[in-house]
Amino acid sequence: MSIPDLATLHALGAAQQPTYPDSAAVDSAVAKLRTLPPLVFAGECDELKDKIAAVSRGEAFLLQGGDCAETFAGVTADNVRNKLRVLLQMAVVLTYAASVPVVKVGRLAGQYAKPRSSDLETRDGVTLPAYRGDAVNGFDFTPEARVPDPQRLVDVYNSSAATLNLIRAFVTGGYADLRQVHTWNTDFVKESPVGQRYEAVASEIERALTFMSAIGADPVEFHRVDFHSSHEALVLEYEHAMTRIDSRTQMPYDVSGHMVWIGERTRQLDQAHVELLSHIRNPIGVKLGPTTSPDDALALASRLNPLNEPGRLTFITRFGAGRIRDGLPDLVEKVTAEGVEVAWVCDPMHGNTFEASSGYKTRRFDDVIDEVQGFFDVHRSLGTWPGGLHVELTGDDVTECVGGGEDLLEVDLGNRYESVCDPRLNRVQSLELAFLVAEMLRKA
Ligand code: PEP
Ligand code: MN
Question: What is this structure's pTM?
Answer without folding.
Answer: 0.98
